[in-house]
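Before we proceed, please read the two lines closing this message. Let me know whether the structure tokens fit the sequence:

…
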Amino acid sequence: MIGNLSNSVTRLGLGVRAANSGVKSIQNTLNNDIKFKKDSIRISNTTFFKRRDAIRRKEKEGILEASGLGGASSRMSSVIGQSTKGFLGRIADFLGAMLVAWAVRNLPLIINAVKGIIDKVQRVAGVLGKFLTNTTEFLQNMGQVIGAIGLNIINLDFTDSQNRLNVAIDEMNTSFDLMGQNIDSAFEILKEPIDFSGLNAAAKMPQQQEQQQEQPAAETPTTTPATPAPTGPAVYTSQGGQKLVDVGGQDYGNYIPGAAGSRGNARVHGAGGEKGHTGEDYALPIGKPLTMIAKGQVVDVGLGYNGGYGNFVTVLLDNGMYVKMAHLDKVYVKKGQRVGAGSAPGGRAVVIGTSGNTGLSGGPHLHLDYSKGYDPATALSSKTVNPKNFIDNGGLVIGSNVKASAQQAPPAAPVSQVSQSSTGGGTVSPQVVYAYLKGKGLSHNHIMGIIAGIDGESSFRIGVQEQGHTKEGIGLFQYTYPSRKQAFLQSVPNYKENWKGQIDYAVDKDPETRAYLSRQFGSPEEAAEWWLVQWERPLESLRPGRREKYRQFIRGFQPGNISPGSLSVPNLQMPNTSNAINVPMPTMPQVDVGAAAQSVMNTIGDAGNALNTLITHRFLNSL
């Protein structure tokens, strides 16, 4: 019994040990299985992360490649061949890479174009502001006309013997004429093409790398160039103007030692050795509009006392002579503006200003200097001559709605040509140079930088020489540095008579200009600054004054007057015994807004064509 019990316990112990051994075996199997699964999961995770990182890296590389035009093609092929997306997803990825490449490459050009649009809007707003000012003055002058009519009726002065109505109508007509000029200027600005030349150039060819050139010595500064010798007197006829009459008799060259003003100055100013009074005085009431029939360009404007001259305007005529008008009441022109026959719409001439009594003046009158030389720094005329022939031949008249109808020998150079003189080549109009450079395909900003430099160097004297302090500069661009000067002379040996040859050399052959034309500028001032510092390279001490001169030229320059053909200025009748009360009022101009709308549509069309050409040439052709 006890033996059986002992055997049972022994067998139980063996069973427990066997069970324990089985449990351990199962535990080991489970542990090995768990470990295997952990290793599998870890390997799967590692493979997943590696694959994800590889995909992300490829996407980043594709984006970086697409930022360049050359990388766009490789990106497109990789997108199509390697993308895991569907067909539409691949097309969207392809278009995205293409547009990113286009935007990165052309964003600066787009910004410049937008700046050009903003600048145009600002300029138009400024012109419209002047239009509102002139409209206000017109309405005020209309009230003065009505008041003058009333006074004449009360005083039974039906012939306007006191000249009240005559003066009021002149002032009203002047304001109305200026309103028309403001509208013309606004249309002219709207018709200026926006500079999309950068986008067009990008569509045609890759941008070339800028070439490093030899650094020449600093260009020398310029002083007031010698004035071309004038030709014989020109005779002008016009419609709507009144001839100036010297009721006080000749006082040109009147010299009285110790007298006040210019009459007491012993400076020799006349071409014939005259002293004293530099010009001629014409007695005129305040407010008479003065219109220049002879063609020329405004080179100086002064407002204030100005050493006794008061408000004045100086014009350089196309024949090389200077005309200075002083003691003006109002000034309507600015520096750089073209004046004379045809400078206003319909063949009319721009009004210079109105007669006045400003500065050192004993009474209302016009002081007029007619000279071969003029110094803007001192506003003094030199080598003066008696202006009698100029006035008698109709070069300057009274009136605000004056149209030139004839001009007899020798003719002054029209705007599209240059004035000749014995100094070699004469002068060329800035507007002519602008149009010539525009025809060569240069942008507005590039052209303004170049012609501002020409104005600072030579004032558009074609054959001028030795203007710098080294007395070695030549031509429009005043080439001074020996190597550049020699290359210029070899290319344009007849430069004194060949202004186009000078422009062609500077733009097409001068290596310094290549870097200038390859850059995109946001404004004319920015282009002029680059031209000054990198192309001309004057001494550092001379640059501030040169910059200011460039800014004044750019602010005052106008490419040319373009009439919308929709303005009409009526001829106001003066009262007499038959129509003393019946004075016709001017009608407001009828403006054809279709031209402005068409200009805007053309601008939008040009932008769309440039964009379409760029995408077609650069991307679609590579498919």
The chain has four domains: 2-58, 89-192+563-622, 212-224+424-556, 235-419. The longest helix spans residues 87-154.
